[in-house]
Design brief:
By secondary structure, this protein is mainly α. Helices cover about 40% and strands about 10% of the residues. A two-stranded antiparallel sheet has the order 1-2. β1 and β2 form a beta hairpin. The termini are far apart. About 20% of the residues are buried. The C terminus is likely disordered.
């Protein structure tokens, strides 16, 4: 009976998209320093709204995993050669 009264975990669509993009960056599907696909392409690939993609990208930018350059696109943050910061530490546990 106690199992039925446990909190229900809510996962927002944007959080799930952010987790998947994070995995794609860390497994080098989206290589460091390279542009990510456009919002339009990501929307089609994930089957979610553009707002969810934007929210996910904002989350990843906040933790330093990606950077958005106005007029150029969104890039996975470089762990090497870029300024030291949180993004560098995110790659520490990933096997080479």
């Amino acid at each position: 009976m106690a199992r039925l009264i446990e909190p229900i975990k809510k996962t927002r669509v944007a959080e799930e998209v952010a987790n998947r993009i994070r995995t794609l960056i860390l497994d080098d599907t989206f290589p460091q320093g390279q542009p990510l696909p456009s919002e339009r392409v990501l929307t089609e690939q994930f089957g979610v709204s553009r707002g969810s993609i934007r929210d996910a990208l904002r989350m990843l930018e906040t933790i330093g995993l990606i950077e958005t350059q106005h007029g150029r696109g969104t890039f996975s943050a470089r762990a090497d050669g870029g300024p030291p910061g949180r993004a560098s530490r995110l790659y520490d546990d990933v096997p080479a």
